[in-house]
Specification:
With about 270 residues, this protein is α+β, with helices and mostly antiparallel strands. It has 2 domains: about 190 residues, 60s Ribosomal Protein L30, Chain: A, CATH 3.30.1330; about 70 residues, CofE-like domain (CofE-like fold), CATH 3.90.1660. It is about 25% helix and about 20% strand. It contains 7 helices and 12 strands. The chain has a 5-stranded mixed β-sheet. Strand 4 and strand 5 form a beta hairpin. The relative contact order is 0.19.
Length: about 270
């Protein structure tokens, strides 16, 4: 059956610098852009915008730097207060490069535990939402209650692909549909069974949304993604549904414990 074309509709909304009612802003923004959410749509919401709505803003001058964070800051040439934020927020710190730490936070690999200082006044930083999956679910339920439509919700963030220059979209959290599509056991074009492929549906939708959401001064914190083909569901979604232990991550594990000595045969 022929699929309808994928549509990504950006929705402009006011810049925010302190906590606010996200649903009020969303409804006003939809009305101003003369856009209506439909059953089956996926609403992509900037994770930073959602975090600001929850007041997840930190004043750097208020941060007390611990000895551990000071050591990280010295080793990786970082602002000590940023190093302290990362140290406090991250579930795990792997290491880093000048100015950045690679961390594991809320089920994804992310630089500096997702802490963001762009599009916010100088001297402030924005953290991830306290519980991203709970935030996504609250938005989904509020949309259903206040707008009368059944939608999926994605909290979007930007992610650096290993070994590649440039950012792409990644789903920090999902609600209202299954974020993965398991293709294992299904046949490919030549009838061969798929062995390992699990499609990251939410991440793929998120990447499409990022194309029109922008990263700079576009002020498009919402994107309606239509005709994705995902099936709406009330089944809860958590980080455990999409993340794997970082010890099983091919990037992390291959570059740490699994690192081969140059010119050494894998069999030796």
């Amino acid at each position: 059956m022929k699929r309808l074309p994928l549509i990504a509709i950006p929705v402009e909304a006011p810049v925010q610098q302190a906590s606010f009612d996200l649903m009020t802003v969303l409804k006003d923004a939809l009305a101003a852009d003369d856009v209506t959410l439909q059953d089956g749509d996926v609403l992509a919401v900037s994770s930073k915008y959602a975090a600001i709505s929850e007041g997840r803003i930190v004043r750097l001058d208020d941060i007390v730097v611990s000895p551990e964070a000071a050591a990280l800051a010295e080793r990786y040439s970082m602002n000590p207060r940023i190093a302290q934020l990362v140290y406090s927020e991250a579930d795990h710190v792997f290491g880093g490069i000048e100015g950045f730490l690679l961390t594991f936070k809320d089920g994804i690999l992310s630089p500096n535990a997702g802490i963001d200082r762009s599009n916010i006044p100088n001297g402030l930083a924005v953290l991830f939402p306290e519980d991203p999956y709970a935030t996504a679910e609250r938005i989904r339920l509020a949309v259903r209650e206040q707008l009368g439509v059944q939608v999926g919700v994605i909290l979007t963030d930007s992610w650096l692909m290993p070994g590649r220059l440039g950012t792409t979209g990644v789903a920090l959290a999902t609600a209202g549909f299954r974020p993965l599509q398991d293709e294992r056991g299904k046949a490919d074009l030549f009838g061969n069974p798929m062995i390992v492929t699990v499609r990251g549906t939410a991440d793929t939708i998120c990447a499409a949304a990022q194309l029109v959401m922008g990263e700079r001064d576009e002020a498009m914190p919402f994107v309606i993604v239509r005709n994705t083909g995902v099936v709406m569901s009330d089944e809860p979604v958590t980080a455990a549904d999409v993340s794997i232990p970082w010890q099983m991550c091919i990037y992390v594990q291959s570059l740490t414990d699994g690192l081969l000595v140059r010119n050494q045969s894998p069999a030796s």
